[in-house]
Amino acid sequence: MAEPTKKLKKPDVKIVLLGDMNVGKTSLLHRYTERRFKDTVSTVGGAFFLKQWGPYNISIWDTAGREQFHGLGSMYCRGAAAVILTYDMTSWQSYEELEDRFLSLTDTANTDCIFAIVGNKADLTDSHAQDLNSDGEEENKPIRISLSSSSLQRKQVNREDAMALYARVLRYKGLDEKACLPAESMCFETSAKTGYNVDMLFENMFDLVVPSILKKRNEGESSTVDLEAPSTGKRNKSGCCT
Ligand SMILES: Nc1nc2c(ncn2[C@@H]2O[C@H](COP(=O)(O)OP(=O)(O)OP(=O)(O)O)[C@@H](O)[C@H]2O)c(=O)[nH]1
Ligand SMILES: [Mg+2]
Questions:
Q1: Record keywords: Oxidoreductase included (predicted)?
Q2: Rounded to whole angstroms, how far apart are CA atoms 166 and 169?
């Protein structure tokens, strides 16, 4: 009897994390997937994590922010249903770089690609400390922990700046602001260190890409990949591809 052909579910959709080196892209993904903040090394190339979301498979691509890997960015963005543009709230430069260096990489993303603007390292900012005094909800622990005033820094990028960038991103993509998701719901301030807003960010994005999956399915794209076909990347144990 002939052996059944080996087929593996392939991701239904792709979400890409973009942003300058050191803003915390890898840490955000670790926080979400491993529920902890751990030491990182600067990413080389890119790596992906597969998330099962209900009946759907979503790949989240973590890319390298270092300039030397810049050329790879548009490759990782090809066919992306969503892009998370990430900056460090304590670094104005990391915010500026999003427009100067990273936005054009998204030209290869889907035409209906969804954008989120994410300011990470909220735990380092003084305004975050104030917020938490009134509403200290973070992962598991009371927040007082690491907020010694000596470690706090001035917040260099405000939420209004992020919302203004969101509007410019839509303009760059030729999209009508009124027909798109509102800036208030697409700009996030997070902390990979404490977990602040991290689940909310990723899970919002997962919900938002579901229509893109359904559209793809309606257009009749195969949802399996042939394991016997030549592979294009090496997989390691964690499901990452480098
Ligand atoms: N305080 C604080 N530090 C953070 C946070 N997120 C990341 N870091 C630290 O920032 C540094 C860079 O984090 P990474 O996650 O490696 O940054 P990246 O954006 O993946 O950098 P590349 O891979 O080089 O593009 C590390 O020392 C992290 O520990 C955060 O939310 N708060
Ligand atoms: Mg990284």
A1: no
A2: 5
